[in-house]
Amino acid sequence: MILDVRALTRRFPVRGGHGAVHAVDDVTFAIGHGESVGLVGESGCGKSTVVRLVTRLDDPTDGRIFFEGHDVGAIPAKRFARTAARGRIQMVFQDPADSLNPRFTAFDTIADPMRRLGESAMRARLRDRVHEVADLCGLPAELLGRYPHQLSGGQQQRVGIARAIALEPRLLVLDEPTSALDVSVQAVILHLLADLRQRLGMSYLFVSHDLNVVRMLTDRVLVMYLGRIVEQGPADVVFEQPAHPYTRALLSAVPADGGGPRSRICLTGEPRSPIDPSPTVCRFHGRCPEGFERCEREMPVLRAAGAGRDHEAACHLLDAPVGSAVS
Ligand code: SF4
Question: For residue 30, how far is its CA from the centre of ligand 1 (angstroms)?
Fold first, then answer.
């Protein structure tokens, strides 16, 4: 495994009040060498917090993060920024315009992590390396002297990706990497990411609300709801045979293969509060169209959801007697 996350938890105290927001609650998953894992869920489900914890921009409240077998979760985020492991976990941000320093040319942006964290051999051939990764990312050399405002959105994101791969990372965390781009550019950048993964053998943690994109680029999918993973499994299995009512609702909004419509599942009811949620109630209860009495008194945990192949979901329907569900 390149990344092994165990019982990861992050709580934020409520400002001026009692209690805490349970942003990430007991999240466990792993990413293999060269594997691409998608993380999906609606806004506020905890995806971004998982990203900040895994990339060590934030410290967990509890749980462990092992990267290449080392317990990096135990290193405070401020200190992690100066370790060699920093270069081996890199991130591509959602909005390239926001993530690039307006005072840096494309060349300086790509060179920056090498100047700060690169080994002496890499720094000695910095110019060649910048041109090499720019070329890998389809960025013409004549653009390297330009500042972010002189580049298009797609070119800015190519600079962001080149910066992220400059140090030869083993894990690339991609946080909605195309959502701020024009539709016409999105496909080009997605193909670039698929190509780079194949050529460089990196692992991806790919965060997106766009399920079609996740399906295209990932081997395995994690579905999050209100701080917890509610379903995980091989992408083809989760997309074809979703086992959790929330995943089914998410997928019902996506056109089926061939572009035909699915029957849309509309969720009603208010999401439960993330502040000190009850440990004995399913987090999806209240919005779940299939909830029943047990869901109000027992939190479901992940369990096998199908015929093996590492497919799990957290829902009592998986062991409820047929006909016991009420809507
Ligand atoms: Fe719905 Fe109950 Fe399953 Fe929760 S445990 S997802 S409320 S059916």
Answer: 25
Give the closest residue (by CA) to ligand 1 atom 3. 315
Query: The tokens 């004995």 sit on which residue?
Result: 280
Cβ distance 161 to 192 under 8 Å? yes
Contact (CB, 8 A) for 309 and 234 = yes
Reduced to 3 states (helix: H, G, I; strand: E, B; else coil), residue 133 is helix
Q: Burial-class residue 106 by CB neighbours within 10 Å (0-12, 13-18, 19+).
A: buried
What number does the ligand 1 atom closest to the CA of 295 have? 2
Residues in the chain: 327
pLDDT tens, residue by residue, 274-319? 999 999 999 999 999 999 999 999 999 999 997 666 999 999 999 8
The per-residue pLDDT for 326 is 42
- pLDDT value of position 262: 65
Pick the CATH number of 3-218 from 3.40.50.1820, 3.40.50.300, 3.90.550.10, 3.20.20.70: 3.40.50.300
Q: What is the pLDDT of residue 307?
A: 65
Bridge-based pairing state of the strands 220-225 and 203-207: unpaired
| Residue of 201, 203, 94 lying closest to 153 (CA atoms) | 94
Ranges of the chain with pLDDT below 70: 256-262, 307-309, 320-327
pTM of this structure: 0.91
Comparing CA positions, the residue from 209, 189, 159, 200 lying closest to residue 47 is: 209
Q: What is the pLDDT of residue 323?
A: 47
Q: Which of 273, 298, 289, 287 is nearest to 327 (CA)?
A: 289
What pLDDT score does 21 carry? 95
Phi, psi of 298, rounded to the nearest 5 degrees: -150, 125
Task: Specify the domain boundaries for CATH 3.40.50.300 within the chain.
Answer: 3-218
Question: What residue spans of the chain are helical by DSSP H?
Answer: 47-54, 77-80, 84-88, 96-99, 106-117, 120-124, 126-136, 153-165, 183-200, 211-217, 235-240, 245-252
Name the residue at shortest CA distance from atom 5 of ligand 1.
Answer: 315
